[in-house]
Specification:
218 residues; four-stranded mixed β-sheet
Amino acid sequence: MPKVKIPRKSTNVDMTAMCDVAFLLLTFFILATKQKPPEVLSVSPPSSVSTKAAPDKSILITMTADGKVFLTLGDDTKKNDVINDFNKLKGLNLNQAELNKLYKSEFIGLPANQIKSAMDLEQSINPANMPGIPVKDSANNELADWIRSVTNAYRGTDQKDLEKMLLVKGDNAALYPVFKQVKQAFKRNEIYKFRIVTNSKDVPKDSELARAGSSTTE
């Protein structure tokens, strides 16, 4: 009995559609990925065993080893309101172009009386050359004015949500008087809770925290 010949079919697979999907996914992840916000200056904060992650939209106060204080307004939805309020509060008389330039700044590290002239410069000032926000004199703690503008911008929202966004990051070599003035800036605006940014480290073995953790997992 003769054998039936089955026609052979091509084994080639058109990969065009799959390549298109792969490149679309790659483009999506590149555009949607959140980049780590730039740091004002290189600081080495103390270490702790806390594993809580900082919120994406945060208001970060950075204290450098030489006592400078910088402010980062990470919440873009309120950043414009904070800057406009500070402009009125301190009577800076910034025009719209200067306000837009300040809005685009990644961080704030100038005294109020130097902001307008800095916004008129063609190039932005390097953070290393900024004097920082004045806080050493309790009679002229401009960080308290910035925090006041922050609270004004977030007025009507739950203060607990605002407190979760307030972060303080200080270098190990930063002196306590600077940190004290940062706390005073919060206190003068009736804010008594904030978070401190630290480097994460493992829980020491044979410590109470380690024993407590092991007992909860058993």
